[in-house]
Amino acid sequence: MRISRKIEIDYGHTLPNSFSFCNQLHGHRGVIVATVEGKMIERTGGDEEGMVMDFKFLKEIMVEHIHDKLDHGFAVWKEDHEDLEFILKRNSRVLITDEPPTAECLAKWAFNQLRHRLPEGVLLREVRWYETPNNWADYDGIQ
Ligand SMILES: Nc1nc2c(c(=O)[nH]1)N=C([C@H](O)[C@H](O)COP(=O)(O)OP(=O)(O)OP(=O)(O)O)CN2
């Protein structure tokens, strides 16, 4: 059985090598959907009976490890020295990425933020990162 939880964050980024306006400092309303898989809990009378895991706990993990790291912050590529220097002076919430902070990169980052933080028996299957309502990336831990 698979269940999914969505959170939304506001963040800035830039793709300095992009030929389009994506090379500007700009912001997005990011939507992140985590899909987890497990068996429905059968403990009779338990508070998670009939659930893979409580949506509430999945939300808490996503808020702590994704929202609270990037909401109202800025994602900057470690090789983008000029912007990195400016953003580190200006912002207290900065996510420094190994690759340009595309939707693909951020989906992978979010997946790795969650993968080892789920309850026993619950597997993270996929993270979907919407950069805009029309553009998104899916990462399943493999490619
Ligand atoms: N594979 C990727 N391509 C692009 C990425 C990305 O992360 N991965 N990012 C961008 C830009 O940052 C930008 O946010 C996308 O802009 P745009 O295509 O204009 O998005 P819209 O949804 O506003 O476009 P509509 O045409 O209005 O749907 C570029 N490429």
UniProtKB/TrEMBL annotation:
Gene3D superfamilies: 6-pyruvoyl tetrahydropterin synthase/QueD (3.30.479.10). Coiled coil: none annotated. Keywords: Lyase, Metal-binding, Zinc. It comes from Chlorobium phaeobacteroides (strain DSM 266 / SMG 266 / 2430). SUPFAM superfamilies: Tetrahydrobiopterin biosynthesis enzymes-like. Belongs to the PTPS family. QueD subfamily. It comes from the Bacteria. Its EC number is 4.1.2.50. Its cofactor is Zn(2+). This is 6-carboxy-5,6,7,8-tetrahydropterin synthase. Pathway: Purine metabolism; 7-cyano-7-deazaguanine biosynthesis. GO terms for molecular function: 6-carboxytetrahydropterin synthase activity; metal ion binding. It catalyses: 7,8-dihydroneopterin 3'-triphosphate + H2O = 6-carboxy-5,6,7,8-tetrahydropterin + triphosphate + acetaldehyde + 2 H(+). InterPro entries: 6-PTP_synth/QueD, 6-PTP_synth/QueD_sf. Pfam families: PTPS.
